[in-house]
Amino acid sequence: MSATILITGGAGFIGSHVVRLFVKEYPEAQIVNLDSLTYAGNLENLKDVEREDNYRFIKADICDAQKTLELFEEVRPSHVIHLAAESHVDRSITNPTTFVMTNVIGTTNLLNAAKHIWSDGKGVFHHVSTDEVYGSLGATGLFTESTPYDPRSPYSASKAASDHLVRAYANTFDMDVRITNCSNNYGPNQFPEKLIPLFINNIKHKKALPVYGDGLYTRDWLYVEDHAEAIRQVLFKGKSGETYNIGGHNEWKNINLIELLCDVMDDKLGRQQDESRQLITFIKDRPGHDRRYAIDASKIEREIGWKPSLTFQEGLVKTVEWYLAQEEWLDQVTSGNYMQYYTNQYAKA
Ligand code: NAD
Ligand code: DAU
After folding, report:
1. Contact 253, 212 (CB under 8 A)
2. Minimum-distance ligand to the CA of 57?
3. Rounded distance from Cα 195 to ligand 1 centre (Å)
4. Does 131 qualify as catalytic in the annotation?
């Protein structure tokens, strides 16, 4: 395939798995990773592919409209997979403006650049989004592609705005777009601010496990490589202008997931049964905390033929093994500014 596939945010958690998949699967294509390397971007995530002939990294900020335009003129991508974003809900509560800048303005800059070089109508823009745009569910029900948008955090509001802009550009400028809205990802290379890697790191160091509120909040968890594969399939098999929900049929209340994680960690570290569960500490809730997310992924399964490949138990064991084997990676990302973030986020809880 002689495509040029531009992946934004390719040095981040999900982006690095998407880049790796495309570099390996499409040796004839050019895979260009555009990333500004914020705290969440880490080129160590791509050490194994950085020397491949079909891979190129460009350090650039999508908030810079002129630079983005120039890069599109130079690279002339045939496909864009847009993952660059501010992604952590707690940070969006502390600093909403950064989220509006990258997720709304940055996405608009990319759309303008794509519209500019695709004036011949050729090119596909795949926008990677979240199930959080649909809001919060009660005890029952699932998000479908037609669930009305009801974002409730600055993060989800900024992602909802970016989804609307992508659809508006498709409608107004006849661009070929697709949007995927996915549930909570977990797996290797996730920055340890998110629940699973944060708690793996804390269990390892026998630090308190800060559970927000009553711990009865529910999320649907999907292994990151399954998400990357879903993106690949939607890019090539999805229909123009369509939205596809992606999820794992894998709902967990936070406290039950944390107990399972403690047990897996105790097993891997050779600790006493129930030892790490003693670290569980209930703290002040996240403001505006969404109670439950759950995805109906039947459309992507039916129309594209994608489904998750791993059980949660398998994915969690693989994840724990990766973090325990990658001491250097974990030590590197948890040094410096991370400790400042951790103190600010959890000290007053
Ligand atoms: P992440 O925070 O790990 O990585 C984001 C990447 O974007 C980083 O490499 C960062 O350097 C880059 N970036 C940030 N601002 C940028 C800018 N202005 N210019 C260029 N690059 C910039 O995020 P993630 O968890 O990998 O999420 C990737 C995408 O998937 C996001 O759009 C997110 O909303 C979406 N998503 C995430 C999840 C999840 O569970 N993590 C679930 C569904 C959807
Ligand atoms: O649903 C998809 C979304 O999932 C993505 O769009 C986001 O980018 C991603 O960050 C994630 O958002 P969440 O807020 O659900 O993920 P987080 O890992 O921050 O929290 C998961 C749950 O665990 C949530 O109910 C809050 C809770 N939690 C989290 C942290 C960091 C705690 O109880 N304690 C914590 O310290």
Report:
1. no
2. 1
3. 16
4. yes
pLDDT at position 104, please?
Answer: 99
pTM of the complete model = 0.98
| DSSP string covering 264-284 | HHHHHHTPPTTTGGGGEEEEP
Q: 209: pLDDT confidence band, cut at 50, 70 and 90? A: very high
Task: Express each pLDDT in 268-279 by its tens digit.
Answer: 999 999 999 999
Return the domain boundaries, the chain: 4-186+221-246, 195-218+251-288+311-339
| Mean pLDDT for the chain overall | 97
- Answer yes or no: is the C-beta of 218 below 6 A from any ligand 2 atom: no
The CATH fold of domain 4-186+221-246: Rossmann fold (3.40.50)
* CATH code assigned to 195-218+251-288+311-339: 3.90.25.10
For ligand 2, say whether the CB of 89 is within 6 Å of any of its atoms.
Answer: yes
